[in-house]
Design brief:
The radius of gyration is 20 Å and the shape is globular. The protein is built from 1 helix and 8 strands; from the N terminus they run αββββββββ. It is mainly beta.
């Protein structure tokens, strides 16, 4: 009986100590555009949703772990109420959302790290 209790306690302790692999998604909004990463529990994906019915595209600017010095841009030029998703790659480490304004400054969120 003692052995069963000890094994059960050990299994419970391991279950609590080992973190889960699912990543919590973080979304930020710049104007009417929302960027989300990780997307679909994949920390190498980022999405851009254009919720602004202004005729201008939206974008996410981001950095990946394996190329931390390279600024990348994912554009959503599909129009209002649409989402685009990046191709896979190393983990997205920092990103922001921007609503493009043709002749004025873009409306951007601050930088965030998922």
């Amino acid at each position: 009986m003692r052995r069963i209790t000890a094994v059960a306690g050990l299994v419970l302790a391991i279950g609590i100590a080992v973190p889960t692999t699912s990543a919590m998604a973080l979304s930020v909004k710049g104007g009417g555009v929302t960027a989300t990463s990780p997307w679909n529990n994949n920390d190498g994906l980022i999405s851009v949703y254009d919720g602004s019915d202004d005729g201008d595209p939206g974008k996410a600017e981001y950095y990946r772990q394996d190329s931390a010095g390279t600024l990348r841009t994912l554009w959503n030029q599909s129009g209002y109420n649409t989402r685009v998703i990046s191709g896979g790659g190393s983990k997205v480490i920092k990103f922001k959302a921007c609503d493009d304004n043709d002749w004025a400054e873009d409306d951007c969120s601050g930088w965030v790290a998922p």
